[in-house]
Design a protein that fits this description.
Layout: E1 13-20, E2 25-31, H1 33-41, H2 47-54, H3 63-72, H4 85-88, E3 120-123, E4 136-137, E5 147-152, H5 159-167, E6 179-182, E7 187-189, H6 192-201, E8 210-217, H7 219-229, H8 235-241
Antiparallel strand pairs: 1-2, 1-8, 2-6, 3-5, 4-5, 6-7
This protein binds zinc ion.
Zinc ion (ZN) binds next to loops.
Length: 247
């Protein structure tokens, strides 16, 4: 189960919805850069991380079973140099502090790698393998029981990792316009002309039946957005109109 939203750490973003009250449907949303970054960022998630976030029994297809099979397969069937966590807890290199609060804190998705905090280990036989997990079996075939628990000292820095965490702090899109998000997650920059064209396209005859409503996008909605985007073409309607009314 995904962890419960914690008010202290969660990010809340505002989204303005244009709702057709007669058909109870979200026509589109006006969203800020942060919301668009959150949505775009969903594409960077490894599938294993999505299954983990939504939990196995929330997956509509068979990916939940695939995930569970990996979990349950005895490690003796795995290649000695492979770790099931590569599949069960895959890493996404993309991270943004602005939007990370919209999904449960997840060591997998959110924490930028702090190179200084990493420890490296090799074996006593100097087989030239290195790991970050002390006690890992050395994959070398030259010795029968070769354990990697001899700590190495790291010097210098790893420019690639540092660049990844710093360049993505600002997300993906520029903060110069408001963006328009359709119910089916088609996204484009907002303009007055496009909203009028849309009202025609949606065949809106009575403007009086339209309602503007500002809603909050927090962790609960973030998870629901991810889930609904995998299953539906009416994502915003599902997440913001069909949920049980609180207050
Ligand atoms: Zn060794």
């Amino acid at each position: 189960m995904a962890s419960a939203p914690s008010p202290s750490s969660s990010t809340k973003l505002s989204v303005k919805l244009l709702i057709d009250t007669k058909r109870e449907k979200v026509l589109f949303a006006e969203a800020s850069k942060a919301v668009i970054d959150f949505l775009f960022n969903l594409l960077s998630f490894p599938i294993g991380a999505v299954v983990r976030l939504l939990t196995k029994n929330q997956m509509v297809g068979s990916l939940g079973n695939l995930y569970e099979s990996v979990e349950q397969l005895n490690h003796t069937y795995m290649q000695p140099n492979q770790n099931k966590d590569v599949l069960l807890k895959p890493t996404s290199l993309i991270s943004s502090s602005v939007i990370s609060g919209l999904l449960p804190p997840n060591d997998v998705l959110d924490s930028p790698v702090n190179v200084e905090s990493l420890k490296f280990y090799t074996c006593h036989n100097k087989c030239s393998y290195v790991t970050c997990k002390s006690g890992t079996s050395c994959p070398s075939n030259d010795y029968s029981s070769c354990i990697m628990n001899s700590q190495l000292s790291f010097v210098g820095n790893i420019p690639v990792l540092k660049d990844v965490s710093s360049t993505n702090v600002n997300g993906f899109v520029k903060d110069v316009v408001t963006y328009m998000v359709m119910d089916d997650l088609v996204i484009q920059p907002m303009s007055t002309i496009s909203s009028i064209t849309l009202l025609n396209k949606f065949d809106v005859k009575e403007i009086g039946l339209l309602e503007e409503r500002v809603v909050e996008l927090g962790m609960e909605e973030g998870i629901n957005l991810l889930k609904s985007s995998l299953q539906s073409k009416t994502v915003l309607t599902n997440v913001f109109l069909k949920k049980p009314v609180k207050k």
